[in-house]
Every structure is written in structure tokens, then in C-alpha cells.
């Protein structure tokens, strides 16, 4: 059984060539490191231990650090086993394109969102009681039984809701973006954003069908990228807007001829200095 580890990014939508809208979940699948190869002769079962996304060494204990060093790998944040999978050696990397293709069906396993303590109406979809003034209860769980004097195990009551392992089966692979390590599956995936998930071949139903043809922009077809917003850093459509070129009109400035104005020459009057004779 083929499988790989990834991280849920967000949900978005894509359009097919015939105009049909498909809700999809974007899963980031970085290359997985094979940390250990388990065999039937040595371990009693066949499996591959995979790890994804590096983390700091001071967050890892010594036994786990020894296992990472054996595989010549950095410490990984998310480590899981994939049963009945072989064909890879310890220390090698597994890429998304090596396992899955568009049109294939997969099972995605993750941890659901935690809801905290919830009542029976929210947790188990119980019906509400009468809301009249004379009613004895409104949102209670009702009768526990008329004869038996104890509560049976697995009785649906109020309690902790969510934050448990959930597997969604038979999700169709819509598109694989090998350049950005992105996987688009039809429908929802358990868990919040940035939640690690395990993607495996489906157990029930058909294995594959004809791939859906997506409506792609011309610029995206050349770069083999999907057109919808797959991540928060999705490529927006570049619209080339031609700015009209305004021709500069040469405006002839009228030349003002300077009129030569003759300034009248004022003759300086010769002032005769009278020489005062010295009077003796």
C-alpha cells in the first residue's frame, strides 16, 4: 500500500473545462525521508517509517536522535509508519509524483479539530426537548433506561468532542503540482490548517478514473501550475493593460521680438568748479 505524509494548507475551489466548480483541499507534500525499513523476518510486519519537516535537535531525545542518525537524516517533526509498503531504502527520499497521479483515489487520515466539552445535542446530534415553560428539560439527554440500574458503556452522553483521529475515504486526486509539491484532493480533510496528515491508497471502491481537466489560464499552462488560489502565496493572474501612449504635441511658442528701445542719453552738465580765491 502506497502512502506519504503531508501538511494541510487550506481549502479553495477550481473549475473544470465544462464550467463545473469543485471544492478542493490543498495539501503540501514535501519529500519524505525513509527513516526505517521494517521487514517480516525482523519486525514481524512490513512497513516504512517516514518523516517530514525538520525540527531543532534540542527538541529531540537521545534515543530518537540515534534513529535519525542511522538514516543520515535531520530530526523530523512528523513521523509515521506506512504498512505494507516497500521498494525504498533507508535514507532515500520519496516524492509525491513517485506515488500518485491525477484521477486516483486516496484515503486521508488526520486529527480532527478539538471542540472541547460539548453536550449531547452538539456531540451526538440529539433532538432538543420541549422549550415550553412547563418542560422539565430542554437540552438534556433524556431517559437513561427504565429498568436497568446502571449506565451501559458507550452510552452517548456529554463529553469531550473532537481532537481524534479521523480518516476520510475515497478522496479524488484532482491535480498534482510537482514544482511546488502541492496535492489537490476533492473535498475536505480532517484537521485545522497546517495539520499533518497521512495520505494512502484507498482501501474501498475503485482505484482510479479519468483525470479531471481543469480550466487553466494561458500563463499557467506554460508553467504547469494550477490556476486557482492554492496557497496564500498563490500566483495571481497577470493582466497586461496597455497604457495609451499620448503623443506630445509640439506647441510653437510665439517668438516675441525684442523692440530695441533707445534710451535717451542724458548729457552730464559740466559743472565748473568755481575756485574761491583765497582772501588774504
Automatic annotation (TrEMBL):
Q: Which GO terms describe its cellular component?
A: cytosolic large ribosomal subunit
Q: Which SUPFAM superfamilies match?
A: Translation proteins (SSF50447)
Output the Gene Ontology terms for molecular function: rRNA binding; structural constituent of ribosome
Q: Does this entry carry the keyword Ion transport?
A: no
Source domain of life: Bacteria
For this UniProt record, the keywords arranged alphabetically read as follows: Ribonucleoprotein, Ribosomal protein, RNA-binding, rRNA-binding
Q: Which processes are annotated in GO (biological process)?
A: translation
Q: Which NCBIfam families match?
A: L3_bact
How would you summarize the oligomeric state and partners of this protein? Part of the 50S ribosomal subunit. Forms a cluster with proteins L14 and L19.
What does it do?
Answer: One of the primary rRNA binding proteins, it binds directly near the 3'-end of the 23S rRNA, where it nucleates assembly of the 50S subunit.
The text of the family note is: Belongs to the universal ribosomal protein uL3 family.
The protein's name: Large ribosomal subunit protein uL3
Q: Which organism is it from?
A: Spiroplasma alleghenense
Show the taxonomic lineage. Bacteria, Bacillati, Mycoplasmatota, Mollicutes, Entomoplasmatales
User: What's the encoding gene here?
Assistant: rplC
Amino acid at each position: 500500500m502506497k502512502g506519504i505524509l503531508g501538511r494541510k494548507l487550506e481549502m479553495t475551489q477550481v473549475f473544470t473545462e465544462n464550467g463545473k466548480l469543485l471544492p478542493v483541499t490543498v495539501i503540501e507534500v514535501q519529500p519524505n525521508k525513509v527513516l526505517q525499513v521494517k521487514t517480516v523476518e525482523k519486525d514481524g510486519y512490513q512497513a516504512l517509517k517516514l518523516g517530514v519537516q525538520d525540527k531543532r535537535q534540542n527538541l529531540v531525545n537521545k534515543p530518537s536522535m540515534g534513529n535519525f542518525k542511522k538514516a543520515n537524516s535531520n530530526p523530523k517533526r512528523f513521523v509515521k509508519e506506512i504498512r505494507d509498503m516497500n521498494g525504498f531504502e533507508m535514507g532515500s527520499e520519496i516524492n509525491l509524483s513517485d506515488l500518485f497521479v491525477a484521477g486516483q483515489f486516496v484515503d486521508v487520515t488526520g486529527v480532527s479539530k478539538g471542540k472541547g466539552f460539548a453536550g449531547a445535542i452538539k456531540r451526538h446530534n440529539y433532538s432538543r426537548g420541549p422549550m415550553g415553560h412547563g418542560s422539565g428539560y430542554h437540552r438534556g439527554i433524556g431517559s437513561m433506561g427504565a429498568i436497568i440500574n446502571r449506565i451501559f458503556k458507550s452510552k452517548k452522553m456529554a463529553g469531550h468532542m473532537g481532537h481524534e483521529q479521523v480518516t476520510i475515504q475515497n478522496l479524488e486526486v484532482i491535480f498534482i503540482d510537482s514544482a511546488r509539491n502541492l496535492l489537490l484532493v476533492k473535498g475536505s480533510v480532517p484537521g485545522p490548517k497546517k495539520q499533518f496528515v497521512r495520505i494512502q491508497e484507498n482501501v474501498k471502491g475503485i482505484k482510479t478514473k479519468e483525470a479531471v481537466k481543469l480550466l487553466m489560464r494561458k500563463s499557467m499552462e506554460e508553467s504547469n501550475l494550477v490556476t486557482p488560489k492554492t496557497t496564500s502565496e498563490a500566483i495571481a493572474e497577470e493582466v497586461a493593460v496597455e497604457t495609451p501612449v499620448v503623443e506630445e504635441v509640439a506647441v510653437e511658442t510665439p517668438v516675441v521680438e525684442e523692440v530695441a528701445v533707445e534710451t535717451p542719453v542724458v548729457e552730464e552738465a559740466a559743472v565748473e568748479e568755481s575756485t574761491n580765491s583765497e582772501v588774504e
